[in-house]
Amino acid sequence: MSLLFVKLEWKDLKNAFKKHYLPIDIKADAQLRIEDMKMGERADSYVNEFQVLADESGYDDEALAHIFRKGLPFVLADKILNQPQGRPKDLNGWYEAAIRFDEQYKYAKAVQKPRRFQMANEKKKKFEKKETTVNRMETGRLSEEDRREYMKDGRCFRCAKQGHLSRDCPMKNAEKAPEKAAKKTPREAYVKIQAMFKEYSHEEQKELLNIMEDEGF
Asked: Where is the CCHC-type domain (predicted)?
């Protein structure tokens, strides 16, 4: 008499057990809970909780992969579906891909945070320099610390821009009071009045002459 041994894969054995030997109430509860699951802050925590309910739900791996994907954030699920090697072949592939992409995202976010902080500091320093320049232009004075910094950067003491010294500053002449217009000579005044007079019509010229006669000119 010979015995026939049938070799079962662990996956098949697990699925058979879930189908036939779990109490109905445990399976029903697990199915309700697993279908409502959504990933929180971390993919690895989501995977661990999902695996516990997956073992109790009685669902096969194909159904579980669909439910697992549905619980992922859209961006993460989209990355997994469009990865160069194609979508995962099985449930474990989904677990591994979710954890991998989530860790990559968190690492990139952690690296970018100091850079954003640095950029904010640079903007703040630039604003403070600009404010110092405005104050200096209003008061006409620079502190010793400002002078040293301006000399180090090759900046003008007058306008805080680079490329020239304060004695050659374009703003130097702009700060001077505008000169009064030179007074016209009688000859220049007469020529100007005559030119203006010619622009009037004959009637207007006649009327203007009458007014001048009345005023004693």
From this structure: 155-170
Mean pLDDT over the full length of the chain: 76
Look up tokens 């010294």; give the residue: 165
Interhelix angle 91-139/61-70, nearest 10 degrees: 10
Domain that holds residue 102: 10-112
What would the mean pLDDT of 133-160 be, rounded to a whole number? 68
Residue 104 is assigned to a structural domain of this protein: yes
**DSSP calls for 129-160:** HHHHHHHHHHH----HHHHHHHHHHTB-TTT-
Q: Residues 6 or more apart from 188 whose CB is under 8 A from it?
A: none
**Residues 14, 96 within the same domain:** yes
CA 105/CA 76 separation, integer angstroms: 9
Predicted TM-score of the model (pTM): 0.45
User: Distance (Å, rounded) from C-alpha 157 to C-alpha 142?
Assistant: 8
